Amino acid sequence: MGLNRTASIKLIRIGSLMLVALVIVIYAIWRSLNYARGPHITIFEPLDGTSISSSIVTIKGRADRVNKLSLNSQPISMDEQGNFDETVTVFPGVNILTLQANDQFNRSIDSTLHLFGTVEFPVKVISSSTDTTSSSTKK
How many C-beta atoms surround the C-beta of residue 50 within 10 A? Predict the structure, then answer.
């Protein structure tokens, strides 16, 4: 069975169209994989469980595939690449900070950071003196 010129041209056209369609499908799948993965938060500094010897610390990280980002329910801003840095006050003892990220499909992820504050804030003690005197009457 031999192929004539017309049949060969049809076969090449069909093959070319199938190849173009396959490239488009593969590209669409590759671009949509990031959305299928959902939001992701990476905290660069400070590390979880770090002892902080100052009263403030800057939290730096990156949020991928995120539309909204919040720290302890307060929105924080990101640049176009998803990088963020937020300065927070560190209190003595355990400080629990929760980062929450939401993507365009309203999927969310939480990342919790535990920091241990070692600086004692000066405490002003207000003392109140109350004089209680009792008077007794004798009959």
Answer: 14
- Structure token pair of residue 84: 């963020």
- Six token digits for residue 1: 């069975």
**Residues 40-44: contacts with CB within 8 Å, 24+ apart?**
40/64, 40/65, 40/66, 40/101, 40/109, 41/66, 41/69, 41/99, 41/101, 41/109, 41/111, 43/99, 43/111, 43/113
Can the peptide bond before residue 75 be classed as cis, meaning omega within 30 degrees of 0?
no
Cα 18 to chain center, whole Å? 41
> Rounded to whole angstroms, how far apart are CA atoms 46 and 49?
8
**What does pLDDT average to in each consecutive run of 10 residues of the chain (139 residues)?**
81 93 93 82 94 92 94 94 94 94 90 91 62 47
Single-letter residue type at 139: K
Counting runs of H as helices and runs of E as strands, what totals does the chain give? 1, 8
Structure token pair of residue 76: 């924080």
